[in-house]
Amino acid sequence: MPRIQLSALDAHWRAANYLAAGQIYLMDNPLLTEPLRPEHIKPRLLGHWGTSPGLNLVYTHLNRIIKERGQEALCVWGPGHGGPAVLAGSWLDGSYTQTYPDITRDAAGMGRLFQQFSFPGGVPSHVAPEVPGSIHEGGELGYSLAHAYGAAFDNPDLLVACVIGDGEAETGPLAGSWHSTKFLDPVHDGAVLPILHLNGYKIANPTVLSRIPEAELDALLKGYGHDPLYVTGSDPRRVHRDLAHALDQALDRIGRIKAEAPTAKGRPRWPVIVLRTPKGWTGPKTVDGDPVEDTWRSHQVPLAGVRDNPEHLRQLEDWLRSYRPQELFDAEGRPTGQVLAYTPEGPERLGATPHANGGLLTRSLPIRPLEDFAVPVEKPGTTLHEPTRVLGDLLAGVMADTAGRRDFRVVGPDETESNRLGALFAHTGKAWQARTLPTDQYLARDGRVMEILSEHLCQGWLEGYLLTGRHGLFSSYEAFVHIVDSMVNQHIKWLKTSRALPWRAPIPSLNYLLTSHVWRQDHNGFSHQDPGFVDHVLNKSPEVVRVYLPPDANTLLSVAEHALRSRDYVNVIVAGKQPCFDWLSLDEARLHCARGAGIWDWAGSDNGDRAPDVVLGCAGDVPTQEVLAATALLREHLPDLAVRVVNVVDIARLMPREEHPHGMPDHEYDALFTRDKPVIFAYHGYPWLIHRLAYRRAGHAHLHVRGYKESGTTTTPFDMVVRNDLDRYRLVMDVIDRVPGLAVRAAAVRQRMADARTRHHAWIREHGTDLPEVASWAWPH
Amino acid sequence: MPRIQLSALDAHWRAANYLAAGQIYLMDNPLLTEPLRPEHIKPRLLGHWGTSPGLNLVYTHLNRIIKERGQEALCVWGPGHGGPAVLAGSWLDGSYTQTYPDITRDAAGMGRLFQQFSFPGGVPSHVAPEVPGSIHEGGELGYSLAHAYGAAFDNPDLLVACVIGDGEAETGPLAGSWHSTKFLDPVHDGAVLPILHLNGYKIANPTVLSRIPEAELDALLKGYGHDPLYVTGSDPRRVHRDLAHALDQALDRIGRIKAEAPTAKGRPRWPVIVLRTPKGWTGPKTVDGDPVEDTWRSHQVPLAGVRDNPEHLRQLEDWLRSYRPQELFDAEGRPTGQVLAYTPEGPERLGATPHANGGLLTRSLPIRPLEDFAVPVEKPGTTLHEPTRVLGDLLAGVMADTAGRRDFRVVGPDETESNRLGALFAHTGKAWQARTLPTDQYLARDGRVMEILSEHLCQGWLEGYLLTGRHGLFSSYEAFVHIVDSMVNQHIKWLKTSRALPWRAPIPSLNYLLTSHVWRQDHNGFSHQDPGFVDHVLNKSPEVVRVYLPPDANTLLSVAEHALRSRDYVNVIVAGKQPCFDWLSLDEARLHCARGAGIWDWAGSDNGDRAPDVVLGCAGDVPTQEVLAATALLREHLPDLAVRVVNVVDIARLMPREEHPHGMPDHEYDALFTRDKPVIFAYHGYPWLIHRLAYRRAGHAHLHVRGYKESGTTTTPFDMVVRNDLDRYRLVMDVIDRVPGLAVRAAAVRQRMADARTRHHAWIREHGTDLPEVASWAWPH
């Protein structure tokens, strides 16, 4: 190893600190070529200084190891609210100017860099998608380490450094992420180097990990499976020396682990660096008599009154000049050679790595023809299949065909087999680096199915994997996917922002398969019943969000193929794992899914040649079955009634076109649902969602929706729909109640339906099973 | 200590195992008085056997220490999907029969206990609210330890045992909960005894913590601040002996910690028990040639074909008889004296502790007269206050007045001060048991403000505290409260179910203060902007959920008082922390909040004596300000227009009465909003929520809603409303566009508004601040 030039490291660090502080405060006089005056100061002082010097330090030192070792690297900045730091690093390594040519690497560009920060119309204060080299928004805390692991999977040559703030370390998701060490394969995956940055404080409090004895912290990190390296100090020169050595040690160790991995037994102990430096280091020591450096008071803007308070202005000028900017930038404002001594070139730069703009690396997924997997459907409703099992074969094909490329993973909280996706295990194992026993099944060090009982980790790993350009699917219990509500919020925001950045290449979509859904919780009950994730995501940016409710196996295949091929979306697919009637052949399924919603002529009795008396709408597998059963009852009991069945796969089609790109124009909606006939709509989830989507339609006044209304418990499948008034008998009663003139004419039929519900209640109390006529029901031909 | 009767422990455990298996399988012949026949078997076999023997073991052994030591105890059953176990324990200790007299502690009652389990109309398969002694639903995993700590806070004599499954231990929230050791005060709080149950498997996989070396696990637990005790084995007699000793050691240690606490320096190392026993222990060893005991295959129902497969039936009979039921129950099916040798009496029983029916212990909160805190309002809109700061004084009063009783806590992720609730620190500190430094502020071992950067822990602690009968408030960033979406789902389900159980006493409500809201994220931006938590909770049971959007300081006081006095609700209060105009005096605020929605006569120009031309609705502080500013513009520019202003505090008032108990009848809605006039509604959150709530109203066709539509970034407050078309100028344009006849007459006014928006864009680009006319705006008098 060449001798480390500590003064070059320090010059880069001082330059970055200068640029970070400058972004927070200055709108003019960027190089301090004249004395600082109030009019050089921004009118609104916004941003987070406290974490910035630490982030700058890491940027500085990562530059060195990248350059010296030719190491391919990516950094996930957990404390990404320290946007000024990462922006400074990117400006210094030239990647910022490469991405945004008007922010030149000179005095004029520096001025614009300062001005734009947290300025309306400028750049956000956090490490957002706008920041080159970033895959991780610095807003909500908790997911940095999971993202880092996701980025490292199947990138064997990549080093993913991950700065974890001691605030973030208190979150549950981060605390759980440490156990990712049991899932990282040293042969096929890259290395993750966590850098736990203990600057001691959050917004207004000390942090837990900074205030426990070092022996306890050491035990904790060893308990997570790591070998810790410590760097502690506030003397820059010593910290530079110690951090450089620690990084060299860590990289040497990683190198050894990787070299020994092909023949090694057991799980390696990966290094972790604990970096203890003061919060707001090198900033004002005290302000108005209160200590600021090394306290929580440095979290945001340490000097708040700079425009009005001459003492604050003086302190700011002293602070900025303490970095000796004249030594760091030449007269044109360009960083000096010493500052850039360790800056890598080209795509090796942290701000320019293609892994952080993953779409650049994305290859289309090999998906075999759906014909290989589709179930034959001669007549609708005569055969039964478990839709997710059929999908499992499709996914197994993708897994097989990516065996060499390794760019597809399936994640889930221990439910792959239970969700009928077990076919995957013919072609890959479950990732597992811990101890195994002879009774274990499918565990494999190089497995590409990831199972851990943590939705947060599943989501975080997959996000990291997708953001670096690879493909995947998350299969989850429908109810518990709410655990990641807030994570998917952030991912959708990331995608929305990224789509507007021409330099960001589209990345594979985040695909959810929500199964074990609300209507089939026989083993569990009320706690496992919640179909509200669809409502949650439909609040988000319509350009990103897609929701599909395929009613059978072939429609699930068609929807899944579309989702796996798509880019920059969040696709939510809700599909059951229990045996379900096959309604559509593959060709019919493809057409139906392409349309997203359509009339099922074969099911209705309006025969297309006259207007229907009533429209029965449905979305979701269980509601579709109940609607078809209701249609059969109507045919039998009210043969004159013209009934139209409309099935909706792509739920956003119900929205107005101005509100969602998939929204159908009014004339199409009217053609499907009519403008004036009663529509009884059986929906998989909360019924008011359908009203929310369709309230602008002409026929909305005639729309009556049935769905889940929190009437849940441990019971049979049919009892669940009865409890929620979504059953066939209730739907027939709804038709009779709403079609003008039927109330009297069909009073006897209505009574018969009510009687059937009564019979159900009596039967289930006695037998604990569903009525035989329901259990054995099939579509009549 | 008396000598431990291992045979009595074993008898109780065998009895509990017998009862657990019986619940899963039997609908008749409960005591096996005749050979087992298919018709004795339930038609649907549902439930979780795998975890049950371990839970039974813990129940058995906790009984002993409770009885021998007279120890007040509560147990949180993390693997609560093992409902059969906890039901068995409760039936054995008599608390089940006390709660449900028809389930007698004899053969007939045992038969009914078996029959009802997971049977439609019976009891759920999980440890749900129906289970005596429980405060923790066993559905979604991750929150047991946080609940246990919440129960222990301010219960100095209580032992809270907490069984943590090794599946649950993989979740992020559980992983983060271990650090609760830094927040438990040995003087004022009870003890938490975690029992980490490593049975090795989840649904279909081994667990992480069961497959790491014991030295690593030991380091991990020590790193969390614990002193571990290990019990490992599959020989019942040895495990009984070792677990009894471990529990005695743990209780002795806890006793010493408590005794030394008043004078001790530093943080104690609390015991934790690691219990390694086989999954599905004592169940079938193999089924159809596959190993079952001690593998994941025992997770649910180990023998699935009992009704049809004679070999399975024989195996089941052997299994059940292996517990030797004739030794455990007398001829009438009553547990023998040996089985009950260690069973405690009365409220000491785990199934009968009042702490698990916390409402029994609840005392009304002392709340000082609001007059002590209200801001004087001579005229609306002349003074400014930070509403949450005013609320802070009220909360500080509650904190002061509960200093002796210690039954009120405020939790939040490091934002109490930032949310302007700092007045609390005059009367209590921030709970903190770790190291302190001279620069720290407000940290105190006995503090009742709880701050940790984990929404999961805040929520879990508070839930545990409320479920055991105490009071509290959770203040959170509005956007990040989505982190606990899934937790609040479960709590709402718990409350809904509990309300229907006459024996469960109402508990204090879960109160959220959502501040740092979407419209004021100056320091942060898009990642911090999400008002969707209201949408989320409004999907849930209307009998539980209440949502309030007080528009100013006095209305916030009134709403908060109501929430703090209420029971069995989840109250969501959305209120800003930034200076906000005072609109209503305290008396007016009380009246307005009691009504939940009302006409602000002083703001409108219809003067009550004629029908309005337009209604301007508003809900939320920022929308209210924009609506009032729009009203002022309309007065100035269109003085003839009759404008009515309706402010909504209680958002559920917009719903039909049949859908929410607060829903207003149609005639009242029509009286406020008219049936036929245009209504422009400015809402705090996603606009379609208002449509969802109001779609059944006669006037819905005329309702036009403005709100947040994901157009967020780091910018000024006024630019945020402009970007989302919620600003005063846009609202005036909306009025002109929608009131018949105005389009032409008011074209010049409309242009002036459009010009103002253009002026805004230009100004902010140049100055980075809001237009002076906006920044200095006040309500005209």
From TrEMBL, chains A, B:
Stretches assigned to the Xylulose 5-phosphate/Fructose 6-phosphate phosphoketolase N-terminal domain: 5-360
Record-annotated Xylulose 5-phosphate/Fructose 6-phosphate phosphoketolase C-terminal domain positions: 577-779
GO molecular function, one term: magnesium ion binding
Annotated InterPro entries: Phosphoketolase, THDP-binding, Transketo_C/PFOR_II, Xul5P/Fru6P_PKetolase, Xul5P/Fru6P_PKetolase_C, Xul5P/Fru6P_PKetolase_CS, Xul5P/Fru6P_PKetolase_N, Xul5P/Fru6P_PKetolase_ThDP_BS
Biological-process GO terms, alphabetical: carbohydrate metabolic process
Keywords, comma-separated and alphabetical: Lyase, Thiamine pyrophosphate
Domain of life, per lineage: Bacteria
Primary enzyme class: lyase
Record EC number: 4.1.2.-
Record Pfam families: XFP, XFP_C, XFP_N
SUPFAM superfamilies: Thiamin diphosphate-binding fold (THDP-binding) (SSF52518)
Stated family: Belongs to the XFP family.
Protein's UniProt name: Probable phosphoketolase
Organism annotation: Streptomyces mesophilus
